[in-house]
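User: My collaborator and I are trying to settle a disagreement about how two of our proteins should look. Neither of us wants to argue from intuition anymore, so we agreed to look at predicted structures for both before our next call. Could you fold the first one, then the second, and keep them clearly separated?

Assistant: That sounds like a sensible way to settle it. I'll keep them separate. The first protein:
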Amino acid sequence: MKGWNGKILRINLSTGETKVEAFDEEFAKKFIGGRGFAAKILWDELKPGIDPLGPENKLVIAAGPLTGLTLPSSSKLVVAAKSPLTGGYGDGNLGTHFGIELRRSGYDAVIVEGKAEKPVYILIKDDNVEIKSAEDLWGNGYFDTHASLEKEYGRKAGIIGIGQGGEKLVKFATVRSEEGRSGGRPGIGAVMGSKNLKALVALGSNDFPTADPDALKQHAKEGYNQIKSATAYDHWMRQGTTMVLAWCNETSTLPVKNYYMGTWDKSKGIDGDMLEKLMIARYGCPRCNMQCGLTIKEIKDEESELDYENIGMLGSNILISDLKVVGTLNRMADDYGLDTISLGSVLGFAAEASEKGYIDEKIEWGNKDQFIELINKIVKREGLGDLLAEGTKKAAEKIGHDSIKFAMQVKGLEVSAYNCHATPGMALSFGTSPIGAHHKDAWVISWEVQNDRMSYGPEKATKVIEFQRIRGGMFESLTTCRLPWIELGFDLEWYPKYLKDVTGLDFTLDDLWEVGDRIYAIIRAFWVREFKDQWNRKWDYPPRRWFEDPLPDGPLKGAHLDYDKYDQLLSEYYKQRGWDERGIPKKETFEKLGLTDVAEELSKYVSLE
């Protein structure tokens, strides 16, 4: 078998046992890697109802057949577990040398189970796997942790780990790597913390198992050249994703004041032009020639690596108009190992709850000192910070009043930085994202704004599914970055070509779309099995604010989503996916996707049509 190592490393932190398990080509072709492997492993191995922060939960770290190869933006890795934030399936991806070195060590995935008695890290060097003490690292921020491990094992070492946020079980703690790489928004960093696992280090010495290395080298060169020759490449290298902020402000899709507004007259202070003026460096994932990590000096003169989501959520969403201040909040999040999207959302939620008098604490919009103090309290789990560390959904449930209306989340995961008062297709994307409200699966907002943006027609459901197959299916399982395609027009046909060079197998794009559908069906089954009779189609609704609080200003003043029309659009989405009106895949859909075993297991908990 070419393309895959065919081996999964299993590590039990409770017993200290490690072992290697094999998988065959049929499994590889069916699930590809990354999210596909993670979803199937978690479905097969986790019993419903387990505590996400208990030793029964499992951390899956999965690469794909393209991970680590010298191909455009190919260093991505998926980290997954049952989410402590949502209670459902959770995952995320991050670009990191760890994926490269894991594959060079001979593995395509790692399963970490159990819990260590004391803080540890895992060292993987080919066949040699050690569980080592991390007591001297525990309590450190991620930057110091990374520096210590890099000093010990060298710059070639691949390292992923957590900051104090993961240690303190903040429900939106992430897994961190490199200067600004972060993944696992639904609290995968907290899962590591719950296992007393501070970090993993990999150093490999093997070659990648490719079918046609000469063709791969030639096609890789052509791919890199195509990216560099893209019309938008120069602008991208100057502003990266931050160029989106000005566009969002113009189109009333910017998150402003906890998504209450869609435009802001102070947005120029934090947009891509401002970042371009302040930028001192650019960082990116390994194997990438279109780096998106643009770096400025924050107010304490430390480096802070920014992108659009950081700025939208820690800037306009909480009315911070100074990019250096945004940089400070972002650096705190990176070092603590907190998801910047959820962090910006809980800060905005707190400011609004304070403004309405729902909490005693005084949190003022735009007050940097109060936000800095609150971030520290979240990580220390002190006072209001302890509540906010649970995420906006649980905070709203405890605070009461009508605060759930402005808790900007779906299924417990906070919404990414796009205001959807007037974009029902993007609202559907958030509603049906397999991990909760995340833009990575189907960023249809640009397409939607350019077309009939207020339409609830079937084409919106079609486009969301199309993007989910590409972004949440193909890219998340290969695993490579979606940005060359979505930002610079890199042709999707390159990916079957790369797969052929690497595996020797013929995949079409339609084959990869089917893999995506298979992954989405398994993840949906995971959610339904977890929540059983509690599950209903309302779980696929975006936040109430977008329906009930019309935009108060801007060119689309008065715009809001319509409940009945959204519900019809959701039904259309289910129909096109072969799911029933509850949002559960039909038995025939499971069978068509080769998931008869999943259907049989799920039918123990709910009836299938």
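The second protein, kept apart from the first:
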Amino acid sequence: MKRIMMFALALMPLLSQAQGVWEQKFEQLGTTLPTPNQYRTASGAPGVDYWQQKVDYTIDVELNQANHEVTGSEEITYTNNSPDQLSYLWVQLDQNMRAKDSDTPLVEANEVKKEMTGKSLQKLTNGFDYDGGFKIKSVTDAKDVGLPYTINKTMMRVDLPEVLKTGESVTFNIAWSYTVQDRLNMGGRSGYEYFPADDNYLYTIAQWFPRLAVYDDVEGWQNKQFLGRGEFALEFGDYEVNLTVPADFIVASTGTLQNPKDVLTAKELARFEKAKTSFDAPVIIVTEEEVIEKEKTKSTAKKTWSYKAENVRDFAFAASRKFIWDAQAVKLGDKTPLAMSYYPKEGNPLWEDESTKAVVNTLITYSKHTVEYPYPVAISVHTAAIGMEYPMICFNYGRPDENGEFSDRLKWGMIGVIIHEVGHNFFPMIINSDERQWTWMDEGLNTFVQSLTEKAYYPEKPLRRGEAKLIVDYMKGDKMFIRPIMTNSEQIIQFGNNAYGKPAAALSVLRETIMGPELFDYAFKTYSERWAFKHPSPADFFRTMEDASAVDLDWFWKGWFYSTDHVDVSLDKVTWYKMGVPEETVENKPKKGKKDKKVSESTEDEKVLDFAEEAEIFEFKDTEDKSYFEFLNRVDDAAVKLANENKNFYELTFSNQGGLVTPLIVEWTYEDGSSETEYIPAEIWRMNENEVKKVFVKDKKVTNIVIDPKEETADTNVEDNVFPRVEKPSDFDEFKSDKK
């Protein structure tokens, strides 16, 4: 008995491994998601008492080229729409990530390599002659009385003299300055680029003013420190901004220019007005020839460009005397926004040919799949080695060589980044998710719609992300270096794959394979419309996609977003059956239980998984009376037998090698050369997450089977997706061969 017990105990791990572990892949997300309430409903829609704060800014700012300093003062009006009383406000000081006491260089892991370039060594030692961070000059109330404030790294708490009650507003002022960094040396989402050939600068300015942090029903204050990667959570509001720059600078900005007659020449103004009705091609407002002349003169006078922007969550601008400027009108419903590009001559001819065209294509596609673009302009600005987005404006790379030559790779890369960054106007500038916490909600969703834009307008462009097969290498990688999609920005290891590629691939699988384009597009647009100009959370997206489609997707979110499992379905076995017929009509009737595998004569150590030469037979029997229970009517056994006597029954055995449950897509090829494809929902795995058998009934004899023939599920091993196939020797077979 003891030996039997020991044998049983030794066998248990093997049985457990063979049967797999039940991981509840089809259980509902349930308490994983926050409990619905009056602010956010179980359907994924904003609740009857949904609220969000409003922050309005009036800003005067000057950009000084001599010392690269931004100096400004702002009046902030904060409206408390929450049910809570607030005794203080949190303000983001993002430039402080470059201050001397910043945590950013302290938490960045680094190492010494055998060879260190000057640039890499400078970064390693933080050896920059640069005094970064905001210099806060004053924080005062509406009567210019000082307010107490406390700065904690990249956050500043402003203490209010009185509690701010529901429905009340408070106005206060901040004066500040900071020095713009050289992006060549220090990198960053904004900064300046220097052009030594003509001794000029190009400024792309963002995170340039103290901005209110978000206070909402999900997080309370989103005052997580800014370390450099996790982007921004911001409130909507109205802006009035006066930008003072050198007089020969051209300014590209969030918002609508209020004083074009004051800042543009007569020629520029006439071209600007013409662009507003040019729907077929861009109008060049500032030409390359005009820019070359300005590069030589360098005005020392100043001009102030005034802009207004309504219902935006941020404000950015770019400024340079090097800017060529073109614009084209776009027809979107009853709106005609201007698609515009600003670029130095170093960007030509590529930028003049492609940039504004890409902006137009992006606005059209995204408006179709999300919400109609609501803003008056959409701007693409060229500067080196960047792709970064803000409301109505983005900064993009893509520079030809000194002879104006460029490769297809550079061209497609530039077009891709413009589509992506302009697309960010929708995610998260309009559908305003919390980037500091959930990178995938803006980057992943945006990358997915980017892929739809590229397929619609640039079919010849190689697609980098947005299809299932493009994420396979990442999905099958070492799990030590992979994180679930539902991971905070600062903890993601492979940022591009995790936050951009995998979510985009997941949505592609959802659209093309699981839901179908019609259901998916309706649900995706519903989510966009529900949460336009609001603050959606992941649960709001998950719930809306199910609510608007009637497709239960909890298993999908669990597998793709909460785990690091991957898709790897193996077609382990195919058994061909036919129904038994009277003995006298069959010659050489095969014995019951005949196996469908045979040993290949070609090599000794290979196996051939092939169809049996003859079908296995199952016996037809008339239904016994006891099977009918209380029913008085009967199945017509003779008719059933007649209907199936010439049918081919194929029993397929599938195993889930990767852990991620997935639909089964089966392509059949028949003896006559015809083929068909069947889609089996992922719920086929609901009773056994590790192995399933499925019988298919065919009129024709099958000669070939392929699982996931178009590679639309991100299956990481397609070698075991075909039948018949040659199976590689196992490690054990090789071990036996070595021993011989």
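Some points you might bring to the call about the second protein. The mean pLDDT is 92. The chain has three domains: 1-32+433-564, 54-432, 569-739.
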